[in-house]
Predict the structure.
Amino acid sequence: MSEKLQKVLARAGHGSRREMEAWIAAGRVSIDGEIANLGDRVEASAKIRIDGRAIALKSVDEVICRVLAYHKPEGEICSRKDPEGRPTVFERLPNMRDSRWVAVGRLDINTSGLLLFTSDGELANRLMHPSNEVEREYAVRTFGEVPEAAVQRLRTGVTLEDGPAMFDSVKPAGGEGINQWWHVTLREGRNREVRRLWESQEIQVSRLIRIRYGMIELPKSLPRGGWLELSLDQVNYLRQLASLDVETRSLIGHDKHSVSRSKVKSAKIRRAVRKTKVVGGKTKPTRQRS
């Protein structure tokens, strides 16, 4: 049975469906020697190349959906490469054969916390779609006085340059002196939306950490720059949010196809922290395989 080209490429982990559509439109993908077009469908026997490099197609049964929870530090960008040479979130992740990790959304360079990656581009595409409205929770440290009237406006809604916006909840979370912590939730993922909401009330944000995505929380034991592979139950929770079939296999967990989670959890967290070497006076990250 034929399937849309961008869906096949996304499922195989080459990127989100949106990314694959952009690649096809740019003429980077060919089918049986002919440049592909948006809307093309392919059979399992098709010979597909990306930038001239042959890729292996994978059926639904061959693809194991994997998801990583990554503790993004401040100072990393959510791009695969940066012309300015800044570190990216992809540099610390384990390599995969014939596939690559796809980020579920983005965090700006000055925001830290929970960032999810998956080997299934279709899952990433659906979770990022605006109609999904997955709740995100952030810990926010503000600098200076925060009037109660401003907090109420953030709960009821304000107008930003790209339209109305509001937090679903704003709760005080302690702090000392002029530094106060808050926990806020919202169901949108617009660019810098959390910061822009506070800035609309002339309140300075000095620290911003994403601590939850849906029911997936940032593990307290996960160091900055560390990653942890999610359990099969957690993967299927995300697949349910995206209206996708359940995954029955895992590289961790308790099924017959996987190894014990307890044996890999601490080791993978330790290995997640980037090893570095000095090349020409500069620190250069090294990658790890999974």
Summary: The first strand starts at residue 3 and ends at 4. Residues 253 and 261 are 5 Å apart (CA to CA). The radius of gyration is 21 Å. Helices lie at 5-11, 17-25, 121-128, 148-156, 193-199, 232-241, 261-272.
